Amino acid sequence: MHCNINLKYGVIMKKDNYALRISLKPGFINAEQLKAIAYVIENFGDNRAHITTRQGIEFKISPEYLEDVEKILNSVNLSLGSTGNRVRQVVSCIGLECYNAIGDSVSLARRIHEEFEGVWVPRKVKINVSGCPNSCTFHRFCDIGICYRYKITINKEKCLNCGKCKDFCDLDAIDWENKIIKDTCTGEGKCIGLCDAFEAERVISIFVGGKGGRIYKEGKHLIDLKNDDEVLLVIDELISLYAKFGKGRMADFVENYGIERLKQDLRRNIYF
What we know:
Mean pLDDT: 91
Order of helices and strands: HEEHEEHEHEEEEEEHHH
Distance between the termini: 50 Å
CATH superfamily of the largest domain: Sulfite Reductase Hemoprotein, domain 1
Low-confidence stretches: 1-6
CATH class of the largest domain: Alpha Beta
Strand content: 15-25%
Largest sheet: 5 strands, mixed
CATH topology of the largest domain: Sulfite Reductase Hemoprotein, domain 1
Number of strands: 11
Structural class: alpha+beta
């Protein structure tokens, strides 16, 4: 029994027993699900649960209770998961609930989760989605990071040389004299509406090869996309390439494969 339970997806071997990890859909959990989790940890666990760094829930349990616990969780649309060499639970900020939101990160994260969570990969893959460049999910420090933002330009023909924008940006991203936006721009879009000369296009930026941990690494910019459907296509192709050629974490794959080659192959294979 102990051998079988340890091989099951969503089950983790601990020092003195086992832990079950619930793979939650990104964004929110409802009252019915919280009640079911409370019932399980009170009656089958040690009356407490751990909130993981990926917004999941795990709790200790004895092996003989696994079947009963799974039935209870499944009855409220919860399931075990987010362990091993798989695409892990997708993380999202609160999306449109926040006044800074540029896009619906929760909706996109749930689509990604439903499509890819549990898919086998050479090493675990963590995907984070931020609704704006404030990076509440630290999307630049995970295997695949996604961020809604604006690409901002200055229309020189509409500029009246009033100087209103000269000292507006706290990132010093506005070159007023040359009428360009510098690379320091994060795409928050606070300058939009400052005057008619500022023009913005909403994009979804994907970063790849980041990771946290003792030796952290910032992900590299991969591509800017126009809509959520394109994001799913890119993730599908990226995971396929990683599964075929990858060794080690996604960061190692990106380093060995080459970011420019990866960009070219994605555009060629998906026809962007």
